[in-house]
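Design request, tokens follow.
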């Protein structure tokens, strides 16, 4: 493990990326734990306020991202400054993306259905950064043997092929499969081979004059969403907390009438002016 870490992380200069990813994931986990305690009214935590204004943690997150980003640019590649800047940047990114939905909707949707987008973005970001971190790079590693160079070239070719399949899956309206297809082999191929979702760019381009294909695509999308939506929601609730239930719509009651009986009807001259 130590040899692999030295060979593939430290030597190619990926140590700051590892520190940033670790800080990012830990910050998200700790932040979600604290916000769930605040929501449940447990622990010594509470919302940060200044003069009655609720300061969301995206605000210090933006500051940390700016400080960490400029610090990384100003630091050497593998120095102590780069490592500290990477940690600061990872913490800031975790705070910002934890409230990604608030930025997207410009509203306090943290514990609503729209707030699930924050969890999705955090998971996808961590997966993509993990791919960059674990990927074999033929650059920056000294004294590669012919076998090592061939192995790394094979891995890179597979990643490029998976990326091409993922682009097709993305055009078919399957964003999650497209993203994870870059990371997990054959996932993008499966997404690219299956029917496109209705309304996607692929469906508009190739199903326009094929009503049977459009009908099959709509039916498959319906069954897919029905089969997997509950599992997806349960996983999101486990990671980020269950959103609040929307308040029921209250219809206005009948106004006060003139009396228990019907009022007088219109006279014979009603409507004449």
């Amino acid at each position: 493990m130590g040899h692999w870490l030295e060979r593939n992380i430290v030597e190619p200069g990926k140590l700051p990326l590892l520190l940033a990813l670790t800080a990012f994931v830990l910050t998200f986990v700790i932040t979600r734990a604290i916000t769930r305690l605040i929501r449940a009214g447990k622990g010594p935590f509470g919302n940060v306020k200044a003069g009655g204004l609720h300061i969301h943690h995206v605000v210090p997150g933006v500051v940390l991202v700016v400080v960490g980003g400029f610090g990384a640019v100003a630091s050497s590649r593998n120095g102590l400054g780069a490592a500290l800047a990477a940690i600061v940047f990872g913490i800031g990114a975790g705070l910002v993306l934890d409230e990604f939905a608030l930025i997207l909707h410009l509203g306090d949707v943290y514990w609503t259905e729209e707030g699930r987008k924050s969890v999705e973005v955090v998971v996808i970001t961590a997966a993509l950064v993990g791919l960059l971190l674990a990927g074999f790079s033929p650059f920056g590693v000294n004294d590669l043997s012919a076998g090592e160079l061939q192995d790394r070239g094979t891995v890179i070719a597979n990643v490029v092929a998976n990326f091409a399949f993922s682009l097709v899956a993305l055009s078919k309206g399957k964003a999650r499969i497209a993203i994870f297809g870059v990371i997990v082999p054959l996932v993008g191929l499966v997404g690219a081979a299956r029917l496109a979702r209705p309304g996607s760019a692929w469906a508009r381009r190739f199903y326009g004059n094929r009503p049977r294909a459009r009908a099959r695509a709509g039916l498959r999308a319906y069954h897919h969403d029905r089969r997997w939506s509950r599992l997806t929601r349960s996983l999101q609730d486990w990671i980020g907390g269950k959103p609040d239930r929307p308040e029921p719509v209250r219809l206005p009651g009948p106004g006060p009438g003139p009396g228990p009986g019907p009022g007088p009807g219109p006279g014979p001259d009603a409507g004449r002016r």
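Comment from the thread starter after seeing the answer: thanks! The first strand starts at residue 49 and ends at 50.
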